[in-house]
Amino acid sequence: MTQATIPTPQRPWGTSVAQRLTTAAILALAAVLAGAAIELTGLSGKLGFAAAYFFFASLLIFVQQLRLRDLAAAKDSLLSSFAFLAMTITLIPIVSIVMTVFLKGYKGIHFGMFANDMTQASVNDPVTSGGLLHALVGTILMVGGALIVSFPIGLLTALYLTEIRGKLARPIKFLVQAMSGVPSIVAGLFILSILVIPVTQELTGLMGSLALSILMIPTIARTAEEMLLLIPNELREAGVALGATQWRTVSGVVVPAAKSGLVTAVILGIARIIGETAPILLVSGGADALNFNPTSGPMGSLPFYIWKAFLTGGTEEAYARAWGGMLILLILIMVLFGLARYLSGRKVV
Amino acid sequence: MTLLENKSADIPAPREITTKPRRSDQIFRAVVTIGGMTSLVILGLIALFLSLKGISVLQVEKLSFITESKWEVLQDAEGKVAESTFGLGAMLIGTFLAAFIAVIVGVPIAVLSALYLTFYARGPVKKLLISLIDLMAAFPSLLFGFWGFIVLMSSAEYWAKLLNKYLGFIPIFDVPAPIFERSPFIAGLVLAIMIIPIVTAISREIFDQTPLDRVQAAYALGASKLAMIRAVVIPYGRGGVVGGAMLGLGRAMGETVAVYTVLNVVYQINWQVLFGAGGNVASLILLKFGEAGPEEVNALMAAGLVLFLLTLTVNAISDVLINKFGKKGR
């Protein structure tokens, strides 16, 4: 039996080696021209070089396309140049922020910081004295409290939107969206006006939890809704067809099927509020000592710890302390975010 | 007619079929509906309680609370409040100024980035970029504020000087004194960086919904990417992108901590974006809250109410636009 020769798949539309070399040559030439422009004209600095480089690179590609093809192709190349530029500009702050936090933050990290609070140290002391135990505990308690309030409400809202689908589904969706746009400081002011000033007269961790839950509810509701919508309708129909009531179907089939999605919603909700500063500053006070009781006395938190070290210090030590706290916060957010991604296994916003 | 009636008389009465839910379902539906109403209740309570606290100030100041620009609490010799004037004007201008700078700088970059992600990026690179941008959207504003203060400030100050040098003849780029640090311009840049991930994500979703048959029809007719985007993607996505930009505007207007850190919060009307003074409503609340007496707290509540209504309006418009135009393309 003769072996039929299978032709290797070709990609005639792909870029050839010659094309790649031309592009590389153009980009190199643009760099040379940009360097010359820096030397010869008034432009200077990294920004000047970047601007000149972009100008020459897109100009050269434009000319090349014009020669090889036509004006339409040349204009098209301009769009891709600008889209690429915009993407680069978008990425620069992300890279810069993460690098800044890691480079400045690692100096502020030491083992003892997880075992001490700030009662024995001021922000200007060397970073090895004191720590952020109180802040971590406060953040965990406050976020936990916010979660206890927000998760049931968020889940019920999502269930209303996906399972009940009542007449009010559209307005409620709209309101949830509107709620996600409430400025964080307004959430703090609201808790002040409804609870702190007329009732408790005391800044406590619980008030912080309540303010945070206003910001957390819309995130959980929207993500949970998206996740519940992913559950195929056949599952619901199967449940009902087997004689289950809607309550049984939802509690026994739909919610368990969406479990990982709901966990994702919770994680994204936590990531949303864990770094919130403005409401915390208004309603939970801010303490340097450990406080395990959310209902009495001010409570420290990670954002407050960073805020205080940054604004009241002014020395190198205080800055190192602030960036150290920021590094912990950023790592927490990244871990939460990675976890949410892993669990949902799909795009999440 | 009669034939039909006769025939139906022979058939036994149909079994009664009800769709009345059982008791357990009634309870379930009631609980979920009540839970679903929470957002309505919370938004209503926010408006109600901020108004209740702020009403005393609003009654005294009336419309001048938003038109006048004087925020003063005068104390007599015993430290009691003798006279107070509350006018939010300067901070409202500051809020719009910083937010508009953010939108003008941020939205074009975000939309082009979204175009890049939708039509240029491929495979794992695309996935990585989308993850990075979503991660950036989750960064706390505190982080943006401190990064803006420590890292961006020196570069932005240099850019501000360049703008002032070459475009100083335009009134808004003029400065009364050469103080370029901590200006509304720099605050606007930080806000721009904060809204870029949000606007990019929404624009990308809108662009993704462009009907594929139209896209392919354009390509089949020989359109280049530019021509296809101009003929198909932009007409479909325009409204949604405007909605995304409005959402960004709403975020930028309500931002507190980043503005407070970067901007030199001074109570004055400052149109000159490069000059290092200004503020916004949210940062004013944070600044004044610490040492405010009961009357001033009420004024801050009223300021919060104004901010709440402002962002609510902007968000409502953006939501309508995104839903209206987002669905069309689906």
In summary, what is this structure?
Chain A has helices at 17-40, 45-68, 71-105, 133-164, 169-180, 184-200, 205-230, 233-241, 246-257, 259-273, 278-283, 302-313, 316-344.
Give me the secondary-structure topology.
The complex is a heterodimer of chains A (349) and B (330).
Chain A lengths: L16 H24 L4 H24 L2 H35 L27 H32 L4 H12 L3 H17 L4 H26 L2 H9 L4 H12 L1 H15 L4 H6 L18 H12 L2 H29 L5
Chain B lengths: L1 H9 L12 H14 L1 H24 L2 H4 L3 E5 L5 E6 L2 H32 L2 H15 L3 H27 L16 H25 L3 H9 L4 H30 L2 H6 L18 H9 L4 H35 L2
Helix pairs in contact in B: 3-13, 5-8, 5-10, 6-8, 7-8, 8-10, 9-10, 10-13, 12-13
Structure description:
The complex is a heterodimer of chains A (349) and B (330). Chain A has helices at residues 17-40, 45-68, 71-105, 133-164, 169-180, 184-200, 205-230, 233-241, 246-257, 259-273, 278-283, 302-313, 316-344. Chain A is mostly helical and 349 residues long. Chain A folds into two domains: 19-106, no CATH class; 133-344, MetI-like (MetI-like fold), CATH 1.10.3720.10. The N and C termini of chain A lie far apart (56 Å). Chain B has a two-stranded antiparallel sheet with strand order 1-2. Chain B is 72% helix and 3% strand. Chain B folds into two domains: 23-85, no CATH class; 88-328, MetI-like fold, CATH 1.10.3720. Chain B has 330 residues and is mostly helical. Classes of the chains: A mainly alpha (349), B mainly alpha (330). At the A-B interface, helix 3, helix 4, helix 5, helix 6 and helix 7 of A face helix 2, helix 3, helix 5, helix 6 and helix 7 of B.
Sequence stretches where pLDDT stays below 50 over 5 or more residues of chain B? none
Intertermini distance of chain A:
56 Å
**Low-confidence parts of chain A lasting 5 or more residues at pLDDT below 50?**
none
Shape of chain A: extended
Structural class of chain B: mainly alpha
How many domain regions of chain B? 2
Average pLDDT number of chain A: 88
Largest sheet of chain B: 2 strands, antiparallel
